[in-house]
Amino acid sequence: MRAMSQNPPNLRPDLAPRARFTDAPREGQPTIGMVSLGCPKALVDSERILTRLRAEGYGISPDYAGADAVIVNTCGFLDSAKAESLEAIGEALKENGKVIVTGCLGAEPEFITGVHPKVLAVTGPHQYEQVLDAVHGAVPPDPDPFIDLLPASGVKLTPRHYSYLKISEGCNHHCKFCIIPDMRGKLASRPLKAVMREAEKLVESGVKELLVISQDTSAYGTDWKERDSKFPFLDLAREMGQLDAWVRMHYVYPYPHVTDLIPLMAEGGILPYLDIPFQHAHPDTLKRMARPAAAEKTLDRIAEWRGICPDITLRSTFIVGYPGETEAEFQTLLDWMDEAQLDRVGCFQYENVAGARSNDLPDHVPDEVKQERWERFMEKAQAISEAKLAAKVGQIMDVIVDDIDEDGIATCRTKSDAPEIDGNLFIDEGTEGISVGDIVTVEVDEAGEYDLWGQLR
């Protein structure tokens, strides 16, 4: 039986981890398959849909043949992502035949049905009720209340020891290269009590690491007309810092109030890790992107953050080959990288996206130039990463165990590494007494370009 499509590796730095399906359906249970593409925010949407279906008595199938219908949760961020989504829909139609489409690309239903007219239904992002209605129409529920028990944490598509926690939908930025606000709307923050209740349930169920995500995490709560504090993001971070789990912050815009978060990291409340979408460094490029054009202030902030918390890990993504990017602008980005010395870096080559305002900008960069600049950028980022990791040899640190293979080699992550987008730490021997999900202490004895090796202490 053919397994369902998953996020392909190494295509884009914003992909979610590969979804994992663990529960076996009971005999005679109606089953639904899920193809979850795109970013971690989409993965959380998939988890919510499957949790609702599981509560109605549906089973979850990891392969096409075992599913009575298949949901394809699509990505529409880039044209390459749209092509990937259309390919996944076509594969699901060929292998199963009953296909329901949701997600970001679902905001353009005619685009999907024009290519695949046989899909049963198309819904947009976070339209959970419409997805459920479509499933009911294709595969009626048949619950068994004595067997179909739903775990308190809901259905999770990640390993049991870590989980994504989405705190808001939408975005109030108007970056010219992005159509996320058109697909997902303006910022809409979840109530703080609801977020904390979910976080507490996850930790109670055994989750050791919470990965906080949204489109603009540091803007959390600023859409509330009435709020107790100016920046509820800081209140949320303080409360989450009281939980018995690693807390990792993603998609944090570098607003001035983010500096107030850093002491919490220095005190050990949340992980000393910030994922910040800088995108570029030259002020003219940032202006054409409709991004804050203050790269020099960003360097000052980075220095201030490191002064407060020397162990902080900074991760970011960048776009090279943006329309109008000159060689001088690109060189400014390389020079900025030399100064910023970011720990973890991903990079896109610019792509047009239907509906994005950047498509209409003049002076688009040829593909071969984009490729050449991407290679130079990644060479720079790799050299910085290699030097930073070499400095960790001899250090003693805590790591979380993600996997142990049949040869006993443990794949782990340090506090500086998010799942599947950053590096790993490998333990080659002496792993007989540890299990997946454990947090163990190691001494680093070897370093590579992106990964570390260590021994248990």
From TrEMBL:
TRAM domain mapped to chain residues: 390-457
InterPro entries registered for this protein in UniProt: Elp3/MiaA/NifB-like_rSAM, Methylthiotransferase, Methylthiotransferase_N, Methylthiotransferase_N_sf, NA-bd_OB-fold, Ribosomal_uS12_MeSTrfase_RimO, rSAM, rSAM_horseshoe
Coiled coil: none
Keyword terms: 4Fe-4S, Cytoplasm, Iron, Iron-sulfur, Metal-binding, Ribonucleoprotein, Ribosomal protein, S-adenosyl-L-methionine, Transferase
ATP-binding recorded as keyword: no
Pfam families in the cross-refs: Radical_SAM, TRAM_2, UPF0004
Residue span(s) of domain MTTase N-terminal: 30-140
Substrates-to-products reaction catalysed: L-aspartate(89)-[ribosomal protein uS12]-hydrogen + (sulfur carrier)-SH + AH2 + 2 S-adenosyl-L-methionine = 3-methylsulfanyl-L-aspartate(89)-[ribosomal protein uS12]-hydrogen + (sulfur carrier)-H + 5'-deoxyadenosine + L-methionine + A + S-adenosyl-L-homocysteine + 2 H(+)
Coarse class of the protein's main subcellular location: cytoplasm
GO annotation, biological process: tRNA modification
Binding site for [4Fe-4S] cluster 1: C39, C75, C104
Domain Radical SAM core: 157-387
GO molecular function: 4 iron, 4 sulfur cluster binding; aspartic acid methylthiotransferase activity; metal ion binding; protein methylthiotransferase activity
Intracellular or extracellular location(s): Cytoplasm
EC number: 2.8.4.4
UniProt-listed Gene3D superfamilies: Methylthiotransferase, N-terminal domain, Nucleic acid-binding proteins, tm_1862 like domain
Mitochondrion among keywords: no
NCBIfam families registered for this protein in UniProt: 30S ribosomal protein S12 methylthiotransferase RimO, MiaB/RimO family radical SAM methylthiotransferase
HAMAP family: MTTase_RimO (MF_01865)
Protein's job: Catalyzes the methylthiolation of an aspartic acid residue of ribosomal protein uS12.
Family of the protein in this entry: Belongs to the methylthiotransferase family. RimO subfamily.
The protein, known as: Ribosomal protein uS12 methylthiotransferase RimO
Organism, scientific name: Thalassobius vesicularis
Encoding gene per record: rimO
